[in-house]
């Protein structure tokens, strides 16, 4: 680790290191007052920077995008990278990844907070930036995630509304089209996701169950069919007898429509849900809240969490308990009643 003195009497160091791609590069740093300072710089650089990604943040985002395209649904991709391109790239685009600091991220966070976005949107923006930098930590040698050290902003405010059985019956009474009735009954009584329901074909329908093995979305005029969200989402969902009979009747009257059960989009179904909820005088909920409604109904009926997890396609019962912890809180009084009886 030699250091050298130039013609002006200042010290400099010059050495080789391997970058994040494994390529051998030369590094030179000048204008140190002492030899000790030059050697300290070389030591610190080799300890902290060699092997870390010195690509631009924009180049890292392209690598991250290519990786995500192999693992995420197209709709998720569009949402994720719309946020990155609009709010994150303009600030960090030309910075080297190993030059991004917690202080720089904190300054960006303060700008975001001043734009008047909701706490949940600010939280999502921070998570997107952190995800890109975590990708660099995992695969490209970034020593630590500066977004994690900067701390989060906003808060996660995932809203979980749900309908009771009486609410759903009021809603269903406003429907007249057989396809609409069948779709919403299936969502409410099975807890499947909208993409899973739209992907169903008649080959997936058994005498007393449906087989969920794919999800469907419509984007920019194209139809995208992919495996479901997780490995556990590949599942067979048993149906109550009345729902099996409804499916049989629906198949008889709609046999001419093709292989798939439904020919609509998630956005069209969401608009329909909002319109008929208003007609029924009910609280407006999202399509995904029909899944929460199904889970709530099972929890209130005392169905074990492990059985609910299997039905919903959760990874395990812990996921179910985490997502629906607020509903399990309502069973505390029932537990006390049981203990009193014992």
Structure description:
Helices cover 52% and strands 11% of the residues. It has 342 residues and is mainly α. It folds into three domains: 4-48, no CATH class; 57-150, DNA polymerase, domain 1 (Orthogonal Bundle); 165-335, Orthogonal Bundle (hpI Integrase, Chain A). The radius of gyration is 28 Å and the shape is elongated.
Distance between the termini: 77 Å
The first-level CATH class of the largest domain is given as Mainly Alpha
Query: Uncertain segments of ≥5 residues (pLDDT<50)?
Result: none
Q: Please trace the helix and strand order, writing H or E for each element.
A: EEEHHHHHHHHHEEEEHHHHHHH
Give me the side-by-side strand order of the main sheet: 1-2-3
CATH structural architecture of the largest domain: Orthogonal Bundle
Predict the CATH topology of the largest domain. hpI Integrase, Chain A
Major beta sheet, specifics? 3 strands, antiparallel
Q: What level of helicity do the residues show?
A: 40-55%
* Structure annotation, total helices: 16
At the fourth level of CATH, the homologous superfamily of the largest domain is: Intergrase catalytic core
Shape: elongated
**Could you say which structural class the secondary elements and strand pairing correspond to?**
mainly alpha
Total strand segments: 7
Number of domains: 3
* Mean pLDDT level: 86
